[in-house]
Amino acid sequence: MKKIILLLLLCPLISFSQKIKTKKDRVLIDEKEVAILKDQVRDQYELFDLNGVKQFTVEYKGMSEGQTIINQWLLVTSADGSQQTEIPYEVLINSLSPTKIVLHLLTVKYGLFDANGFNKQKIEAFFATKRESISDKSLKAKVEAVASKKDKQDKIARYKPFVKNDGTILFGGTAGTTIVGKAISSGYTAFGSNNTISIYDLDNVLVATANATGNANNDVNVTLFNDSKFTYQAEKRFGPDNTIFIKDLVGELVYRDITLGHQAKTYNRNLMNEKIKLAKDRSKNIYNVKGYAIDEKGVKYSGTLTAQFEKLDINQTGDTQVVDAIDNYGKNVSVKYLNEKGKERTITLSAKDNTTFYVINEDGTETRYQGMKVKGDAMKKLSNAMSLGFNNAYFYKTLYTSKDNTLLVDPVEEDRFVIRLKNKDVGQMIDKRNNDKLSTELAEYLSGCKKLAAEIKNGAFDLKNTENLINIVNEYNDCK
After folding, report:
1. Does the model's pTM come out above 0.90?
2. Alpha helices (runs of H) in 404-465, residue ranges in sequence order
3. What angle do CA 333, 335, 337 make, to 5 degrees?
């Protein structure tokens, strides 16, 4: 019990003004005798009033599994033995005396007696209060802990981890030949908090870093390669010879399904694949969707389409701009199709060749993308300036078409539009510049309709408004 008391003294303490102490068989509060105490039986206290009338009995109870304390409580029995109740064992004073701790708890928290002696009303109410059975709860917890411990031992036994003197980690016990990793131990510092073990796998990945805290529980804090953490109580303390300590550490890893070898590399690869998958789902890109494309000669290719309009934001930084490579995003579409002999083929078509492709949506509708060169905002992507094969041709998504004159939008930047006339080889970009600049350029592009061009040039239209752009296409069509 003394060991348990020392551990509990680490908990926050509550201070009270009254002072309880014992003198021979007497209990004193603030130097005044208030009760008679008999404690001939270990961890058991019988309390009597000053006339020798028994009031109740208190018995300390505790349950542990290995080094782990499951629970501590007090069993309180009425004077005639007809009533019993259990209360949590709580340390409310700074004392190494279990007797003082128990008496203080009964006095301060439950008020069973004070400087005036025993309080009969509170004692009756105390036994009349319904409480959960701490012993039943603790027993259930111990059964679960024992079962969990057996499961753990059985799982570790399947691998039989063993550590050689040079730190080599094997599975299969002392006669094992399956090397799965290596352990490197820091120099030993007595009572130090920086004693560590580093566990590497066969790919030289730092799988686990274990820090022996050196505290009373002999806790070891472990950080894994995937940044998850756990703490366990080591059976053996960190020391100059750590083969057993490391063996137990590897057992803790195995129990948590960390089996070294090439596992971390596989995990990281799978994690990266999942990040890429999620990044693809978040992007505006098209991957292996049903559709068809028509090249500059009118040849149609039906199958699955892939078109990348932006760089994948794998780490969710918010940055998808290409600044360190030649920009090919939004310039090509790949079609996987079957040729006339039923053989699978893949062809890549370019936006600069006026290619058109169509995505077939789940509801059967089609979304059209038109490849074209554009006028205006030649610096659409910063990396264009660094590309020797510079061209300002991209695929744009069709928003509206009438009489083959079309309003399109950038698949990524949805505030960047293009108007394309059927008799023009290039489209006119309507980008983020101010209306004055855009109006002048668009008026020139639509100069075939002088009245409309003049209105645009004079600022009659807000070119940031999609409805206005559709109206411009329609009015151009109606122009005579």
Report:
1. no
2. 435-445, 450-457
3. 175
